Every structure is written in C-alpha cells, then in structure tokens.
Amino acid sequence: MILPIIAYGNPVLRKIADDIPKDYPNLKELVANMFETMYNAKGVGLAGPQVGLSLRIFVADTIQILQDIPEDNDFAGEEGIKKAFINAEIIEESGEEWAYDEGCLSIPNINESVTREEKVRIQYYDEDFNFYDEVYTGFSARVIQHEYDHIEGILFTDHISPLKQRMMKRKLEKISRGDVEVSYRMKFPIVKKKGMRRK
Fold it and tell me: Which of 9, 41, 48, 103 has the smallest CB count inside 10 Å?
C-alpha cells in the first residue's frame, strides 16, 4: 500500500523517533508499504517519520541507481543495498568528508550539497529482529546517514550553511503550505490560508 509522504513543516519530522518493540504489529507489512511508497516516489530511502510514524525504522534501496550509473562515476562498482533498518544506531562515522547533492521526498524539488563522512558503522535489526553490526561506504553510506538523520529529527537542510537556509526559507514555506507540484501522494501540515484550513 502506498502511504502519503509527510511534507516539511510537520512536527513529526523534528522528533527523535521511538524504538520499535519486537511485538510491533504488522511490522513486515509496514516495511513492504514503505518500500512500495519509496519506489512510487522514485526515492532511494524512506524513514518512519516521513510516513507519519515517529519510529526508528527506515528502508533503503541503492541497487538500481548504482547499476544505472556510468562506468566513470565515482560510485561505479559499488554493489548497493536493499534493506530495512530497525532501531538503528550509528556507532561511528569516519573517513574523508565529501560533498554530494542531496534531496528528500519530504522536501520536494530542493537539492543542496551536503558534506558527510565516507564510511559509517551501524548497528540495527531487520524486520525479523536479527541483529547486525555492519560498515558501509560510498553512496550507500550516504543514504544510510541521510535516513538515520530522519529518525533523529534532522533534515538534510540542517547540514547546509545558514545563508543557504535563509535563501530557501520561502521555498520551504511553500512546501509546508502544499504549494508544490509532486508526482506522488503527500500530506501537508494544516495551515491557515485565506480564512480556510487545509491538510
């Protein structure tokens, strides 16, 4: 089932998400719905808060995008991942810092250069609550760091300079009002607009 993606301005995107208990109902169905929602929006990652759930869960699939890049790209040869990360905790970020244009399904039509470290060590559970302690590098590491930020209440726009943040303020306000064109289903914060209220 395709879920609505929560737009910038909703308080759920700013909360530190809660751990998911082992007996969380229909967890595998939630994971499947998040993957379907992500694919429908042509994304490579999606976190619980982005579908209105303040839970420590995110999904990522970098396989297809890495298969489609040209051979002279920096990411050529990287295998990619398709995984659900539950109750994740980043243990270490290391390596050389590098910048890359990032976007976000909750902040459509905005991309900015974000600097992150090239390697991440993360502990997490899968949807069967098997435990993993793994290291990722390159593009997959970046996607993991971006989605992990979501369950910590952080958005990619927090990583850019105050000047750029001020410059995009009007665009962000338009997104929160629903004044944006997207090809996927979104849920916008309730705002006052000309005496009316809308979702």
Answer: 103
- Domains located in the chain, CATH noted: 5-198 (3.90.45.10)
Active site positions, annotated: 147
The span from the CA of 14 to the CA of 137, in Å, is 26
- Residues 118-133 pLDDT 10s: 999 999 999 999 999 9
Structure confidence at residue 198 (pLDDT): 45
pLDDT digits (tens, 9 = 90+) for 94-113: 999 999 999 999 999 999 99
DSSP bridge partners of 93? 120
Residue entry with tokens 């301005």: 9
Smallest Cα–Cα separation from 8: which of 164, 135, 179?
A: 179
Q: What is the pTM of this model?
A: 0.92
β 82-104/57-61 pair status: antiparallel
| Contact indicator for 64, 122 with CB cutoff of 8 Å | no
DSSP secondary structure, 98-159, as one string? EEEEEEETTEEEEEEEEEEEEEEEEEEE-TT--EEEEEEEHHHHHHHHHHHHHHTT--GGGG
